[in-house]
Amino acid sequence: MKPTQKQSTNVNGPRPPRLAGLLGITVEHISATADVTEATPAVILRGAALYLQRHGWHQGSLYADDRTNPTPAACIQGGIGMAAFGQRIPADAMEHNHRAEWRDYQRASNFFSDYLTMTGAKPGPTDDQEDWEGPTVGDWNDEPGRPYPKSTPRSSALPTNTSAPTHRSRS
Q: DSSP 3-state assignment of 66?
């Protein structure tokens, strides 16, 4: 990087690529291909797609088995959680919603929900529904008869081009 280029900073220091070891990706590969200090929805969703490809997709709950397997098959939300937290979504995650991982998880989940609505895969609100609370990503994932999503980083049920301004603020 040239000294005149703006460098991204993280006040807490760079976050370690925890999921890398689970996915079999080397730190050198991550450093060469992505800025690991910026967990955008695209980065989290790509990580979720890769996780599902390697460990399997599941319906009915976040994870396919009890807590003894550190890398179980997961539903879409569970895969997003593995990519954001680097582990199963902690049971107390909502109590610690100030953590960067929780924010990253929420942003990626919201983006995926918007993607499903925009592509028609999940119905959205009509003009007369102000307080609409329709199907969730979990409902979409668990729909009976849903085929296995083709989960690869390039061809995925998960969106990887998140250049749209939706959910881009980092508060």
A: coil
d(CA 160, CA 66): 30
Which pLDDT belongs to residue 26? 47
Contact 46, 8 (CB under 8 A): no
C-alpha distance across the termini of the chain, in Å: 27
User: Rounded to whole angstroms, how far apart are CA atoms 76 and 79?
Assistant: 5
Number of neighbours of residue 115 by Cβ within 10 angstroms: 21
- Say how far apart CA 43 and CA 27 lie, in whole Å: 15
In angstroms, rounded to a whole number, what is the distance separating the alpha carbons of residues 80 and 62? 10
Model's pTM, two decimal places? 0.63
Can you give the chain as a three-state secondary structure string? Answer: CCCCCCCCCCCCCCCCCHHHHHHCCCHHHHHHHCCCCCCCHHHHHHHHHHHHHHHCECCCCCECCCCCCCCCCECHHHHHHHHHHCCCCCCCHHHHCCCHHHHHHHHHHHHHHHHHHHCCCCCCCCCCCCCCCCCCHHHHHHCCCCCCCCCCCCCCCCCCCCCCCCCCCCC
For residue 166, pLDDT beyond 70? no
Taking a C-beta distance cutoff of 8 angstroms, is the pair 76, 62 a contact? no
Cβ proximity of 63 and 56 under 8 Å: no
